[in-house]
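Input record (one chain):
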Amino acid sequence: MSENRPFKLSVLDLAPIPQSCVARDAFKRSLALARFAEQAGYHRYWLAEHHNMPGIASAATSVLIGYLAAHTQHLRLGSGGVMLPNHSPLVIAEQFGTLESLYPGRIDLGIGRAPGSDPTTMQALRRHSTPQSEERFSEDVKQLITWFDTQDDNAFTVRPVPGVGLNVPIWLLGSSMYSAQLAAKLGLPFAFASHFAPDVISQAIDLYRREFVPSARLSHPYVMIGVNIIAAESRARARFLFTSQQQQFIHLRRGVPGKLPEPVETMDKIWTPAERFGVERALSLSLVGDLAAVTHGLRAIQQQYQVDEVMVNGQIYNNDARIYSYQLAMEAHQAIHSLSA
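The corresponding structure, as predicted from the sequence alone:
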């Protein structure tokens, strides 16, 4: 592979709710970021499904996708991802069939296998079902593909309306070897959640590429990875902004998730040595610094993994600073491509 293989840059939005805000504010912040991303040249914009999280407003993922799609012009929008075990495949097919009908050619369906919540909340989401097996998950994914790829509306006794024949792009998301292997087997694009679980990134990508089976949907492997980018006018400022995401991660691990905290000058009095080790390991695929540092880091990541797309996550308390961080990330991306050219 070429050392300077071109790659696309996209946005992952968890619709964070800062301490001083409510969900309505988070939606306004997401719209501002989506409009910026469209203008700046980001390739796609995904929202993640989480439940029972006071600091994340994207629980009704398809509804929020529709809101952003209605207020943008051409930006691709999708789920990063919908947690399929929480839902009937028919309902997801109907939701994304509706989105595709309203905004044709702009919708992605990214699917994950994790619940996106705690076990009690998962039970509340699907009150009369048991936890899904891996076999059940793969069958549900295949059912979605069959609905979307079959042109004959009369081929099914039960069919999503709208949905049948709309060929909505499906991605498999994950942080494990299982997700990589299933994506390869089904001939689907694969997105690895390295922005919070990077431990087996190399092994998962290698497995996916090695075992990939071409399909009617995809002829060659296509890999996306998640990277946290917190960029600012100085490295010190970026490290300061990053403390919001670090604090949020600690609160989640302590079992007390809350709204996105304000940044602090130092984390020393907030985390224990063991917590610091765990957070730094989980968030090791993070670029925190000024434009030069982010450019260098992004180029190094691409040289190492040779991916087709990088999806940028950035949990930043102030929305102006958040948008500026995404601006610098795009400038870094453009600089890398200029060097390649």
